[in-house]
């Protein structure tokens, strides 16, 4: 095996590059802006240029792993709305320029889960699931050390798990009541606005010009009743999603990442309590933890993908 | 490879034996009663005796696959309440008597899913899930042609998926509101008794001394309003479970088996409609079908296990 591996996380705003040694230790990282104009055609050249600029000798690179924001099946990118891509074969597009056949691709949320399983909060565990609670909700599932892709690349789409609720909110996907509408940063604001309608007391949140999910968590930690009721409801939904992951794929660790996870133990404890109310007893040893790699989970997981898809 | 394979399905009432050729065609099958007294200790000898009686030459047998009613991890049986077994290593118990090291074991519902994926309703598919709606609800998930076991053998426990409901019913597992309480044969009767309380019209079901799930399906097919409302509610729960399987493991086929599945297309059409209301659009090509192997799914899947765990 050659001494270096690239892990590259292609997002709608920026492309993150990580150069790793063969022990998957990060040697250096950087990022460039994503240019999604013209159906994202310039992304391929931008990636090649940036790699060449940072790599004196391409023959030292074992392979390149990529995470992309859309469904992927057997290294083939089906659709990335944020990049403008449709039916993209990254191996075909990059092989000649990089002089390398070892190019592997996964969905970004799946790859992040793999990163946490390899080197983050679930280090060394073989059966891991991850929920990334950001602007939306992503998820990834690792089974026996391998990424679960499903029959058409849509495994681990917990963001679009329908949660039976009295007042389901419309989701970008066209459905109503998806986990994403009540457990993402946006979703927590949705719950706040709904509960606020019937709330009769005073809330410290009323002093804010703009109430975001961080403000809600901060107020809840300080004892604000309205904020606590919002967090409790969100924790139930997240705990329910963990239960769904448990009865289907039975992970030993469920990792919670994304901006919402910055609420830390305050959130994890509530989610764990909800999970324990729902869990099938023989598998109640599953633990729920916060992510450790932050925004780097994608590059770590992408590099890991090079190792497992030799 | 030797010319024959055994697939053996150990149930609480009977042990089913199937002798297959190397193309996994069934050559002969039979069953014996299960003797679970004395912590199921005599089961091992009963199995060996029955195999020897039906097999002129044990050296012609490539291997033995087993399905057992409890969680299994890497061929190790953790617990089978119905058999009286706890921490049983079937390889250890049978290797010497059968003069064979190739002894593989899986959970019965998982193994049934594998049977339907290899040779039944989902023949040749690599990503398959199965719900067995009998007295309880079992389930199994096949990913890339392999059984999903999870970190402690509890993957595919959809029977204990909690369904958010207004009046959840107590389950044998100690929780309330499990899928099993509303989607098994018993569960469909539970829904009938609940809906009947508020039903004001006349139902043809009132003419029956005992209302079982078959009577409910027959009455619904004949247009009985109460029976239709029971079946519609059960179909929603089963459709929701299919949705949960879809957003987690993304199978191409979901197989519905067990006694309840005898309701056939009448049920499948309603379940499919509910599933399509909930499905994440990129994976709406998943099909829901009835099982084809009936009570033989277990022996087929157990024989298949010998092939995939070489």
UniProtKB/TrEMBL annotation, chains A, B:
What superkingdom heads the lineage?
Bacteria
Q: What is its EC number?
A: 2.7.1.2
The biological process GO terms on file are:
glycolytic process
Q: Name one GO molecular function term.
A: glucokinase activity
Q: Name any GO cellular component annotation.
A: cytoplasm
Q: Which UniProt keywords apply?
A: ATP-binding, Kinase, Nucleotide-binding, Transferase
Under PROSITE patterns, the record lists:
ROK
Q: Which InterPro entries does the UniProt record give?
A: ATPase_NBD, ROK, ROK_cs, ROK_glcA
TM spans (from-to): none
Keyword flag ATP-binding: yes
Q: What class of enzyme is it?
A: transferase
Keyword Kinase belongs to the record: yes
Q: Give the family from UniProt.
A: Belongs to the ROK (NagC/XylR) family.
Q: Which NCBIfam families match?
A: ROK_glcA_fam (TIGR00744)
Record-linked PANTHER family: BIFUNCTIONAL UDP-N-ACETYLGLUCOSAMINE 2-EPIMERASE_N-ACETYLMANNOSAMINE KINASE, ROK (REPRESSOR, ORF, KINASE) FAMILY
Q: What is this protein called?
A: Glucokinase
Q: What organism, scientifically named, is this protein from?
A: Candidatus Xianfuyuplasma coldseepsis
Read off the lineage from the record: Bacteria, Bacillati, Mycoplasmatota, Mollicutes, Candidatus Izemoplasmatales
């Amino acid at each position: 095996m050659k001494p270096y591996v690239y892990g590259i996380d292609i997002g709608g705003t920026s492309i993150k590059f990580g150069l790793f040694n063969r022990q998957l230790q990060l040697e250096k990282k950087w990022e460039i802006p994503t240019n999604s104009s013209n159906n994202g055609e310039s992304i391929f050249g931008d990636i090649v240029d940036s790699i060449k600029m940072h790599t004196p000798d391409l023959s030292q690179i074992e392979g390149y792993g990529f995470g992309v924001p859309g469904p992927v099946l057997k290294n083939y990118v089906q659709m990335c709305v944020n990049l403008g891509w449709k039916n993209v074969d990254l191996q075909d597009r990059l092989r000649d320029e990089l002089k390398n056949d070892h190019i592997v691709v996964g969905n970004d949320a799946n790859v992040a889960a793999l990163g946490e399983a390899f080197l983050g909060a679930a280090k060394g565990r073989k059966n891991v699931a991850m929920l990334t609670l950001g602007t939306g909700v992503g998820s990834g599932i690792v089974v026996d050390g391998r990424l679960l892709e499903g029959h058409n690349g849509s495994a681990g789409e917990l963001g679009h798990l329908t949660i039976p609720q009295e007042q389901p909110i419309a989701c970008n996907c066209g459905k109503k009541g998806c986990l994403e509408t009540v457990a993402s940063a946006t979703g927590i604001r949705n719950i706040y606005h709904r509960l606020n309608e019937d709330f009769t007391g005073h809330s410290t949140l009323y002093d804010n010009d703009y109430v975001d999910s961080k403000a809600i968590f901060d107020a809840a930690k300080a004892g604000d009743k309205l904020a606590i009721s919002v967090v409790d409801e969100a924790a139930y939904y997240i705990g329910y999603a963990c239960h769904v992951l448990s009865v289907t794929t039975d992970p030993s660790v469920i990792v919670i990442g994304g901006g919402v996870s910055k609420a830390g133990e305050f959130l994890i404890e509530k989610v764990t309590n909800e999970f324990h109310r729902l869990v099938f007893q023989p598998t109640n040893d599953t633990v729920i933890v916060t992510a450790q790699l932050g925004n780097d989970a994608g590059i770590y997981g992408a590099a890991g993908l090079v190792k497992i898809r030799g």
